[in-house]
Amino acid sequence: MAPLELAVEIAGWTGAGLILLAYLLLSMGRMTGQTPAYQWMNIVGAAGFVANGWWHGALPSTALNVVWMGIGFFALWRMSQRPRSST
Predict the structure, then answer these.
(1) CB 39 within 8 A of CB 80
(2) In this structure, are residues 14 and 51 in contact, taking their beta carbons and an 8 Å threshold?
(3) 35-to-3, 27, 32, 54, 76 alpha-carbon distances in Å
(4) Contacts with 38 (C-beta within 8 Å, 6 or more apart), sequence order
(5) How far apart are CA 66 and CA 60, in angstroms?
(6) Please, which residues have CB within 8 angstroms of residue 39's CB and are 6 or more apart in sequence?
């Protein structure tokens, strides 16, 4: 396996792991969807899927994950717009 191909596979599997871990932590109540950590796990995970999907020509998966990243960035932007608590 060529180094670039290996990097693409690692990106895909790492992306899958991050998205699954984020969902597991959310489902267990250890994290909420309103935290930057949750959103970043999804964004970075989706980026891994984008790289892997593009490489393999899986355009529906690639498109889905580009949108998934956009949702994550939008959620982070919305979080940044909220007034900070004084506590």
Answers:
(1) no
(2) no
(3) 35, 14, 6, 29, 8
(4) 22, 25, 26, 31, 32
(5) 10
(6) 33, 72, 73, 75, 76, 79
| For range 50-77, the mean pLDDT | 98
Within 8 A by CB and 6+ apart from 51, the residues are 8, 11, 12, 15
| Cβ atoms of 12 and 48 closer than 8 Å | yes
Number of helices and strands in the chain (H, E): 3, 0
- What confidence score (pLDDT) does residue 86 get? 65
Whether residue 73 contacts residue 43, with contact meaning beta carbons closer than 8 Å, is answered with yes
**Between 7 and 84, where is the model more confident?**
7
pLDDT at 85: 72
For residues 49 and 43, what is the distance between their CA atoms, to the nearest angstrom? Answer: 10
